[in-house]
Amino acid sequence: MKLHRILPFARQLFSETVNAGETVVDATTGNGNDTLFLADLVGENGHVLAFDIQQAALDSTAERLGNLSERVSLILDSHANVEKYVSGQIGCAVFNLGYLPHSEDLSIVTKADSTIKAIHTMLGLLKKGGIIAVAVYDGHEGGGEERDALLAYVKNLHQADVHVIRYEMINQRNNPPFLIAMEKMKDFITVKLVE
Fold this sequence. Notes:
By secondary structure, the protein is an alpha/beta fold. Helices cover about 30% and strands about 25% of the residues. α4 packs parallel to α5. About 40% of the residues are buried.
């Protein structure tokens, strides 16, 4: 066994919990790395809903997917609107907070209100034993506020409903990212969103 960085650790969690044929969500498609991983993981009968608010991210993802593109719906919309696109259960969801890597406009970033709304909605859609993994990058303007709001939200999730871990490398410099992973413990939970 070895220590994984945060994204390989999230993928390990998904590999252990997602079944072929399930629907899963990439809430922040970015350059498509997680979308591609999930498309392979769900198999030919599964489906990935991949969200981004930037067309450039969806275009980059479409190129990366190649012959797996039929397993993916690329959605130009905020992940906060996930309920418009998902009616059934999901096997997992992944978020990478912050901005689109290598983007020309680094002012387009994820925001606490839409991130928490999306997580809240997806917890309701998530199967029992399913995982939501959120990679938190907080070194940009507004990143600290989003991080703090997210941590406040997950700390208030009832432990009987959702198990939450924080996974991080503590000896890295310059705002190292960390992972928040949530495992749904019951089929039905009554998570209340605090406004």
